[in-house]
Write a structure and sequence with these properties.
alpha/beta, Methyltransferase, Methionine Synthase (B12-binding Domains), Chain A, domain 1, 193 residues, 2 domains, single chain, Rossmann fold, five-stranded parallel β-sheet, globular
Length: 193
């Protein structure tokens, strides 16, 4: 339905940026609000994010033609030793829905791979996910690897995942922490703009 709606809007001559901002991004912002108010849960967010992704697939070529700039670029991944990806995928979809360009590194990503991605992709921000207390130290190792490579000042670092806290973010030198996908988007917007 989202795909069809985007196609109809394009055929009607509506500008790609307007479809993105007034249609897709506005809808995802509403989904985020409903989630924060406890009316929506993770399944509803996943459904909305998938619908958004379907709409983006149709819209992307038109956005590129119209030279619509992304809100920012984010490298995202689950840290080394951690194979959990549902939360990361949801954050990735929600960020894309908010107009960010995403470079998803997947799961079990070493600090070295994150450093390489920052060198290659030149993102505004890097988002690290961990679902296990045993893999959380790899968030710290990634921040340190960025510092050692001389890249730390060039990129914002946000972290998230069930065992992660705001105080842990401060302790390891990350720029911020988000407890859920919806708040990851608002944090990313604040960090990048």
């Amino acid at each position: 339905a989202t795909r069809a709606g985007v196609e109809k809007s394009l055929q009607a001559g509506i500008q790609p940026a307007e479809i993105l901002n007034e249609g897709l991004i506005a809808a995802m912002a509403e989904v985020g609000r409903l989630f924060e108010e406890g009316e929506f849960y993770v399944p509803e967010m996943l459904i909305a994010a998938r619908a958004m992704q379907a709409g983006m697939e149709v819209l992307k070529p038109s956005l590129q033609e119209a030279d619509v700039k992304a809100s920012g670029k984010v490298v995202i991944g689950t840290v080394k030793g951690d194979l959990h990806d549902i939360g990361k995928n949801l954050v990735s979809l929600m960020l894309e829905g908010a107009g960010f360009e995403i470079c998803d590194m997947g799961v079990d990503v070493s600090p070295e791979k994150f450093v390489e991605a920052v060198r290659q992709e030149k993102p505004d921000m890097i988002a690290l996910s961990a679902l296990l207390t045993t893999t959380m130290p790899n968030m710290k190792a990634t921040v340190e690897a960025l510092r050692d490579a001389g890249l730390r000042s060039e990129v914002k670092v946000i972290i998230g995942g069930a065992p992660v806290t705001d105080s842990y973010a401060a302790q390891i030198g990350a720029d911020g922490y988000a407890p859920d996908a919806s708040r990851a988007v608002s944090l990313a917007k604040r960090m990048v703009h």
